[in-house]
Amino acid sequence: MDLNALRLLVRVAETRSFTRAAGDLGLTQSGLSRAIARLEQQLGVRLLQRNTRSVSLTPDGQVLVDRAGPLLAELAHTEHLLLDRRDSPTGALKISTPSLFGRKVVMPVIGELTTRYRELSIEAVMTDRVVDIIDEGFDAVLRTGVINDQRLIARPLAPLRWVTVAAPAYLQRHGTPRQLADLQQHNCLTVRNLRSGRLVDWQFMDQGKPLDLTVQGRLIFDIGDALVDAVLGGFGIAQLMEFAVRDALDAGHLVPILQTHDGRCRELSLVYPPSRQCSPKLNAFADALGQVSW
């Protein structure tokens, strides 16, 4: 049975007029008449009784409309549901984010998203390891630095700002460095880059120019989370992204030092394959992340 012709029949029955039904449907009267005639021929029964003033259903037409009307309405409702699902965040979203940024910034975002969208689930891999976005099946990853992989789309986010900090208790014991050279006399807490195996240089501005400084210390970590704990414990001086220690700075648990050399930032991007760029769940995550300041 031609469902489209059936819809046309129901509309004619509702309006009791070929003229009004054709106008509502955006068809010509002749096109509407031919479609219903084909349906009558297919079923082998007469469905409409026509006269010069109006049109009405035959008994067979009435039976068909009574049975088909609710089914067509249900089909239309189902179609709207599917369209809504296409435009709404549903299903599983798999993302990767650096550990510390994930805990401090991404966690509240994904928690709010799963509360707002009941049919959305999120798998968040919080690691400082560089994952393979394609081979490991990620929808998107958050990465710092310049993205050179032309196979991927990189959506820029607000950059991450470096700050150099220490606990008041440490500074009381060891003094406060005033110049970059003073760091040689302090225990500088450092992180080893998992990819290169090298200690991560500290990043400063010196007389308006960027300066990468190699520092020394007796504590080396592999992740930023431990670095935050160590500097809060008063074990030494650390350089971290501002988002990681903002609460501690506001509370006075840490204090900024060498502020005349601040100003260095690091690029941050949401990276994903081109096949994901129209994904409602990814767009919802990207939009929510873009509204957060760090």
From TrEMBL:
PROSITE patterns: HTH_LYSR. Keywords: DNA-binding, Transcription, Transcription regulation. Residues 1-58 form the HTH lysR-type domain. The keyword DNA-binding applies. The keyword Transcription applies. It comes from the Bacteria. Belongs to the LysR transcriptional regulatory family. This is LysR family transcriptional regulator. It comes from Pseudomonas idahonensis.
